[in-house]
């Protein structure tokens, strides 16, 4: 668990972050979201002490981070940024294996792990293992950065726009893969993003900031359905609920059980926003959900109002 208590940062008398209170529960993914200059990156960097707070404190598992040596603190916290800073003289595999090599882990086990992680982030190990960072596109380099952070296996990951340089399709794929890994490994993640879709899609909780203060902190559906202020409503936009549906498969919202094969059918892997389109087009409030062509359950209009249980 990470606790930010009355955290402040001022630059020449101007507050970049003010009286910020935020608790990041263990194993959850929290997105720091907000307009440019609202203090997201400053907040993130105070967590691993790349920046020293002007006031307040950060607790990691109940311990004041000022009592820890910065290098000890950072060993337990991966840091992924858009300009990844891969080592140019090392190949991709060596870059990913930097921390395991430093820690003296078994070489063969590390190599296997590196290949697994490269495949996981969508880079074919045979093609990319021996390439140098200079031979990679921005998006490929970004994936190597994510693989490297995961290879170090820290309990906490801090990420600043980690998927920013990717084209939309690749971004969605890497986001999905990352989310799946994060849940499986129960990493605690704090991610800075200005991409609303990314925050709503990936985060367990979204911290929406404005001018250095926290405006609202809660699960995505809370911000969407119970915005604390007009700013929250406007920032997320009127179509926030639809966007959230677009990020969820029908399988996450459906009711499993017997289904009427006579109704319009949608595949369980379809996204819920498209399923809604089918309801509207067909004038039906219930659809049959199929998997491999077989009916496996139903999707009701009412199911689209509630976010899937995690
Ligand atoms: N080293 C610095 N000196 C002076 N002011 C700074 C410094 N770093 C950041 N700021 C100011 O602090 C505020 C918050 O900056 P920060 O980078 O945290 O914002 P952000 O929300 O991450 O923005 P973006 O989405 O554009 O990256 C901004 O107004 C910025 O101009």
UniProtKB/TrEMBL annotation:
Segments passing through the bilayer: none
The molecular function GO annotations come to: ATP binding; ATP hydrolysis activity
Q: Which UniProt keywords apply?
A: ATP-binding, Nucleotide-binding, Transport
Q: Which InterPro entries match?
A: AAA+_ATPase (IPR003593), ABC_transporter-like_ATP-bd (IPR003439), ABC_transporter-like_CS (IPR017871), P-loop_NTPase (IPR027417)
| Keyword Transit peptide applies | no
Q: Which Gene3D superfamilies match?
A: P-loop containing nucleotide triphosphate hydrolases (3.40.50.300)
Swiss-Prot/TrEMBL GO biological process terms: quaternary ammonium group transport
Domain of life per record: Bacteria
Signal peptide limits:
none
Domain ABC transporter per the UniProt entry, residue ranges: 2-236
Membership in a protein family: Belongs to the ABC transporter superfamily.
- Which protein, by its recorded name, is this? Amino acid ABC transporter ATP-binding protein
Q: To which species is this protein native?
A: Deinococcus arcticus
What lineage is this protein's organism placed in?
Answer: Bacteria, Thermotogati, Deinococcota, Deinococci, Deinococcales
């Amino acid at each position: 668990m990470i606790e930010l208590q009355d955290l402040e940062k001022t630059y020449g008398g101007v507050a970049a972050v003010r009286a910020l209170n935020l608790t990041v529960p263990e194993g959850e993914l929290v997105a720091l979201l907000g307009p440019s200059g609202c203090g997201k990156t400053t907040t993130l960097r105070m967590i691993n002490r790349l920046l020293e707070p002007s006031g307040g404190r950060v607790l990691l598992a109940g311990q004041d981070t000022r009592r820890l040596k910065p290098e000890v603190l950072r060993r337990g916290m991966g840091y992924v940024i858009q300009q990844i800073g891969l080592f140019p003289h090392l190949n991709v595999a060596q870059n990913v294996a930097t921390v395991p090599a430093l820690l003296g882990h078994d070489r063969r086990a590390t190599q296997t792990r590196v290949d697994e992680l490269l495949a996981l982030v969508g880079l074919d190990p045979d093609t990319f293992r021996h390439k140098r960072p200079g031979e990679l596109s921005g998006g490929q380099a970004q994936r190597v950065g994510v693989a490297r952070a995961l290879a170090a296996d820290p309990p906490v990951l801090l990420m600043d726009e980690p998927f920013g340089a990717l084209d939309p399709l690749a971004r969605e794929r890497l986001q999905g893969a990352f989310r799946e890994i994060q849940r499986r490994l129960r990493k605690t993640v704090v991610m800075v993003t200005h991409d609303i879709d990314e925050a709503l899609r990936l985060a367990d909780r979204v911290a929406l900031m404005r001018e250095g203060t926290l405006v609202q902190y809660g699960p995505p559906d809370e911000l969407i359905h119970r915005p604390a202020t007009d700013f929250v409503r406007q920032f997320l936009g009127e179509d926030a609920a639809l966007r959230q549906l677009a990020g969820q498969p029908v399988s996450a919202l459906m009711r499993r059980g017997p289904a009427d094969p006579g109704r319009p059918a949608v595949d369980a892997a379809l996204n819920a926003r498209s399923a809604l389109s089918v309801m509207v087009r067909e004038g039906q409030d219930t659809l049959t959900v199929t998997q491999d062509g077989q009916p496996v359950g139903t999707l009701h209009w009412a199911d689209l109002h509630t976010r899937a249980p995690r």
